[in-house]
Amino acid sequence: MPRRRRGWAMNGHHGEHHSQHTPLTISLLEPTLLLLISQKERHGYTLLNDLEQMNMGTIHPSVIYRTLRELEELCWIQSTWEMDQTQGPPRRIYSLTPLGEEALINWQHQLELHQKSIDQLLLMFKSNHSE
Amino acid sequence: MPRRRRGWAMNGHHGEHHSQHTPLTISLLEPTLLLLISQKERHGYTLLNDLEQMNMGTIHPSVIYRTLRELEELCWIQSTWEMDQTQGPPRRIYSLTPLGEEALINWQHQLELHQKSIDQLLLMFKSNHSE
DNA sequence: TTGTCTATTGATTATTAGAGAATAGTCTGT
DNA sequence: ACAGACTATTCTCTAATAATCAATAGACAA
User: Fold this and answer.
1) Which of A63, A74, A125 to mutate: most B Cβ within 10 Å?
2) For A96-115, how does the pLDDT look when each residue is reduced to its tens digit (9 = 90+)?
3) Interior CA angle at A60 toward B5 and B119, to 5°?
4) Alpha-carbon distance B44 to B49, whole Å?
5) CATH of the domain at A56
6) What is the dihedral of CA B77, B83, B87, B89, to 10 degrees?
7) What range does the domain containing A30 cover?
8) Which residues on chain A are in Cβ contact (under 8 Å) with B69?
9) For the whole model, what pTM was predicted?
10) Which of B115, B42, B118 is nearest to B77 (CA)?
11) What confidence category does residue A3 fall into, taking pLDDT thresholds of 50, 70 and 90?
12) Is residue B8 part of a domain?
């Protein structure tokens, strides 16, 4: 999982088949976490897998845990320790707060706008090709 | 133009009508610049306006100029000084290199993938609402 | 008790974004 | 010729974020 820097869009054109992630993916991390948590309470460790099973490659655990803590500082999610014997140490269970639900709605709007921007860009690409 | 920090998606829900930009917008800056330059040679100062006239709010000039220099370091674009009497100091005219054209094609693929991710997220939003 | 898997945290570094000021050429009006 | 406005680019500094790596720790099996 190397650090991506400016120009990353040019790497990975010799058979990078195993899941990668890009700055674009990272930009969707926050809303994706909120969305997953809004569906049902989750803890960080399962979110690692959940994210991988969606499109978004392998994101470093510390990035995910940090983001979760930051979302909690914003009071968008809240956590409790689950001591139920699972198969490991106690885990922090996150759930969405009312404020988080609001935030999620704003995210939806932002993503719709972003989607339009990308559509527009991709159209420009096509008209470029047809010249 | 304040610095956006974690949680920015929650700001601006009391009538922010004048063009803003978000980290999402910034993530499209690089490919947009390449695309605009691929259409025709341009210099930084016009790109400021071009970007504004597309969807992407007001981005601080220093961000755009820096990005252009970095793209030039990558040899994706190249520049010459245009001394033609315009109405100001000489300006740096950027054009796309062959490497830049390759990069642009990779960007197109990345954006298509990104678009799918967002579509998927927005679908999840909708099925959340209908529950 | 050693090792493996589950689970989270913290320290440190690298990279990027943004504010703001500095520099400079051109043009218009006085 | 000088001031002020507009065009055009660069540079420095700070704030914020991403990534790596190491540390901690419980549960369980050999």
Assistant:
1) A125
2) 999 999 999 999 999 999 99
3) 65
4) 9
5) 1.10.10.10
6) 80
7) 22-129
8) none
9) 0.90
10) B42
11) low
12) no
